[in-house]
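User: Please fill in residues for this 149-position structure.
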């Protein structure tokens, strides 16, 4: 996984003034505007040292946010991590299930498992390699997806 998981949880979207549904073009535009605003070379010479240091820290944060959100692959990983964090905050994991225990649906290329509420847990083939938590489509129950090693 990426290095941003080791960093204390930051909302890279809010640093750029964006949200997960913001297009890549808009993310880039927001990044460019902020990087110009906070770039150390763009600060006037009479700015107090403390303010300059704050600008440099903000510039570094903006750059880190862009390194994660400006790349499709790292953005996808970050979004999945955010989604899993959201699920973890919803409540405890109801069960641990091996991917092999789930049913394969060839029509929509996904794995599914019935929930005790009558709903279902489902995950696409691609997502199954990356996610560890899956929420039921009807209730608030969550399962942890395990893989045979």
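Assistant: Residues filled in for all 149 positions:
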């Amino acid at each position: 996984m990426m290095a941003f998981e080791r960093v204390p949880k930051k909302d890279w979207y809010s640093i750029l003034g964006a949200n997960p549904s913001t297009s890549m073009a808009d993310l880039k535009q927001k990044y460019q505007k902020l990087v110009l605003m906070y770039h150390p070379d763009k600060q006037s010479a009479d700015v107090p040292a403390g303010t300059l240091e704050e600008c440099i820290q903000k510039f570094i944060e903006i750059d880190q946010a862009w390194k994660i959100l400006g790349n499709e692959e790292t953005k996808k990983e970050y979004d999945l991590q955010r989604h899993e964090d959201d699920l973890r905050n919803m409540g405890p994991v109801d069960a641990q299930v091996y991917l092999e225990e789930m049913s394969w649906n060839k029509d929509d290329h996904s794995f599914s498992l019935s929930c005790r509420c009558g709903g279902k847990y489902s995950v696409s083939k691609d997502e199954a390699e990356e996610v560890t938590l899956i929420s039921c489509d009807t209730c608030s129950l969550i399962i942890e997806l395990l893989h045979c090693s």
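For context: Residues 1-8 have pLDDT under 50 and may be disordered.
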